[in-house]
Amino acid sequence: MNYEDKKIVGIIATNVEAKIALNVIGHLAVAIGKYSDKEIMGQPNIIDKSGINHIGISRFPFIVTKVKENKLKTAIEKAKKNSKLLVVDYPREMLETRTDEELVIALNQKENEQLEYLGAVIYGNTEDVNEITGKFQLWKIEE
Q: How many angstroms separate the CA atoms of 18 and 142, rounded?
């Protein structure tokens, strides 16, 4: 498997503050790692010259982008229609609830149209991911 065959793109809504965006990406990265295929990870353990073990990271690029809220929602919906892509989304309820149980209740009570997404991560073949996220701007902390 080539480094450029697959891609991971994090997407943050432009109205999300940096301190929240980092939290959102952190949660999404854990989820994408857990639920992705085994190919996503590189070497599990890397030993440096001193004999210290370092846990390996994703073998594919992970890029973080930003888009307006409506484009984020559209990207999530389009990505979920492609069965070859893995999509993890982050509705505002994930930020506003404290426990997993509260989150489940909150999401069970809303229609998808009512959800405000703060972020998402899409993983899959580079071509499929680029079709959805290729024109998004790279995310950066505004100073």
A: 8
Q: What is the DSSP letter of 89?
A: E
Q: What does the angle CA 98 – CA 113 – CA 135 come to, to the nearest 5 degrees?
A: 95
pTM for the model stands at 0.93
Task: Encode burial over 10-49: b for 16+ CB neighbours within 10 A, e otherwise.
Answer: bbbbeebeeebbebbbebbbeebbeebeeebeeeeeeeee
pLDDT one-digit tens code per residue, 4-42: 899 999 999 999 999 999 999 999 999 999 999 889 999
Closest CA to 112 of 86, 91, 81, 88: 91
Residues in Cβ contact with 131 at an 8 Å cutoff, skipping those fewer than 6 apart: none
Cα–Cα dist 39/105, whole Å: 33
